[in-house]
Amino acid sequence: MAEELAERLGRRLGMREGDAEQQQQQQDAEPTPVPPGSPAIRAVGSEGSPGGGRRLFSPAAEFREFSRRQLRDMERLFRQYDAGKDGFIDLMELKLMMEKLGAPQTHLGLKNMIKEVDEDLDSKLSFREFLLIFRKAAAGELQEDSGLHALARLSEIDVSTEGVKGAKSFFEAKAQAVTEGSRFEEEIRAEQEEKRRQAEEMKQRKAAFKELQSAFAQ
């Protein structure tokens, strides 16, 4: 009778453990969702890689000092002057942009503007490098008489007062940057941790049950 009871309990425990392990595998296999309303990973933000390919970056993840509204405004401005629609602003497109903004630059001045943020040295501005202009402006790293300072000032994108929770500087904004995306990621990690904890508890119960089986068998 005791052996029959132990066998039934063993089958029931095995079925529960199998369900828990299957749910854990599905949870681990699922990609982390993108938080609703957050700027998605955009092709316009692709960057060159050492191997010659392209990699995508998430503006919202890398430039957390800016709000989603600011990032949308910056992307709109970038696309407006990316006349070739190739994901870059070259020297001639930058020339037109500065003329439209009312701050025309010399040929040398335009080259210096690109050079200041041209991390991959391709003599044109990617979307990420375009965002670096506003990061430098928010941090007060641009000379007031520079072309980049004029671009940031005349673009009608406020990077000094609108930031996260109304922070007045880049450093304050960065310290207070608690975005919806980061909170969403924390919730996902907490759920995954809870699944792992439940799986561990199931293993412990199984071990305890095996000890109970051994006691019945004696």
Q: How are the SSEs placed, and which strands pair?
A:
Blueprint lengths: L1 H28 L12 E7 L5 E4 L1 H4 L5 H14 L6 E2 L1 H10 L6 H11 L7 E2 H12 L8 H8 L15 H6 L4 H38 L1
Antiparallel strand pairs: 1-2, 3-4
Helix pairs in contact: 1-9
Q: What structural class do you assign from the helix and strand content? A: mainly alpha
Unreliable stretches covering 5 or more consecutive residues: 28-43, 48-53, 161-171
Total of DSSP H or I helical runs spanning 4+ residues = 9
Strand line-up in the sheet with most strands = 1-2
**Strand content range:** 5-15%
Percent of residues in helices: 55-70%
Global Rg? 28 Å
User: What is the H/E order?
Assistant: HEEHHEHHEHHHH
| Main beta sheet strand tally, sense and closure | 2 strands, antiparallel
Q: Would you tell me the overall average pLDDT?
A: 75
Number of strands: 4
**Shape, principal axes of CA atoms:** rod-shaped
Distance between the termini: 13 Å
Characterise the protein shown here.
Helix 1 runs antiparallel to helix 9. It is rod-shaped, with a radius of gyration of 28 Å. Residues 28-43, 48-53 and 161-171 have low confidence and may be disordered. The protein starts with a helix and ends with a helix. It is mostly helical and 218 residues long. The longest helix has 38 residues, at 180-217. The chain is built from 9 helices and 4 strands. Helices cover 60% and strands 7% of the residues. The strands form 2 sheets. It has a two-stranded antiparallel ribbon with strand order 1-2.
